[in-house]
């Protein structure tokens, strides 16, 4: 294979250097391997073309796993990097190091003639005004993808997840009654525009995470409408192929065969009590009315 077609990585550079050095120097190179890899990644990593910003328990993991199967989409080192909230004290090189390098992008686009996109998915970002502004400042042209699930089902799924991992000890009704007391101090800090480093909100904001009207208002205050795609989770899982094609069109990606049969991070639990469901429907209705100003096609009628 011609040299120009090889992926230029830190390991390749080390291997090429070893070939021209005496044997004794090879051992001297070993301690520098990880440092060279890190510096190379920090210097050469690209910034994301898309970010799936939420919502939590709405299907972000499934959508990300489907997208990174596309031959023109390159995966980050991990799905949730958390740079724009909890890790914003790191420099931009740290964030870049989680993505493929510019030479890999060059190889894909100029040598193979393919598109090259990369991105991440972090459902915490949609809750955090600081994170949204930080994304816009750092990657101004990034595409934003949002999935929204019936806020009642989302809240109950969120509660079940917190119970499964052992952080939630209360019953569901007790937990939503305790929500304001649990999260109010942390919530005030976050909406005041400070980087949020805790987990309290992400574990216990069962109702507040379903305030879709407030969230979309903030998203569209920061990003232009052409940068944002909002999907309904139930529609996404009801006709995944059609909805996935919408995502590809939004990202200007060609059609491709990917395995969309598996729903990731799916939980199994009993249905929510009808009486409580009616009470929560009344609670969320003002937020849903506000949401329809930005995503009028999304409705939950039951």
Secondary-structure topology with pairs:
Blueprint lengths: L9 H11 L2 H7 L3 H12 L5 E5 L5 H8 L5 E3 L16 H5 L5 H10 L5 E5 L7 H10 L4 E6 L2 H14 L7 H6 L1 H13 L8 H5 L7 H11 L5 E5 H6 L1 H11 L23 H18 L11
Parallel strand pairs: 1-3, 1-4, 2-3, 4-5
Helix pairs in contact: 12-15
Question: Mean pLDDT, nearest integer?
Answer: 87
Unreliable residue stretches = 1-5
Number of strands: 5
**How many discrete domains?**
1
CATH topology name, in short, is: Rossmann fold
Strand content: 5-15%
Class by alpha and beta content: alpha/beta
CATH class: Alpha Beta
Q: Give the termini separation.
A: 60 Å
Q: Fraction of residues in helices?
A: 40-55%
Keywords:
alpha/beta, Rossmann fold, single chain, 302 residues
Brief digest:
This protein has 302 residues and is an alpha/beta fold. The chain has 15 helices and five strands.
What does this structure look like?
The protein is α/β, with parallel strands linked by helices. The chain has a single domain (45-262, 276-291), classed as Rossmann fold (3-Layer(aba) Sandwich), CATH 3.40.50. Helices cover 49% and strands 8% of the residues. The chain contains 15 helices and 5 strands. It has helices at 10-20, 23-29, 33-44, 60-67, 92-96, 102-111, 129-138, 151-164, 172-177, 179-191, 200-204, 212-222, 233-238, 240-250, 274-291; strands spanning 50-54, 73-75, 117-121, 143-148, 228-232. Strands 2-3-1-4-5 form a 5-stranded parallel beta sheet, with helices on both faces. α12 packs parallel to α15 (274-291). The longest helix has 18 residues, at 274-291. The protein is globular.
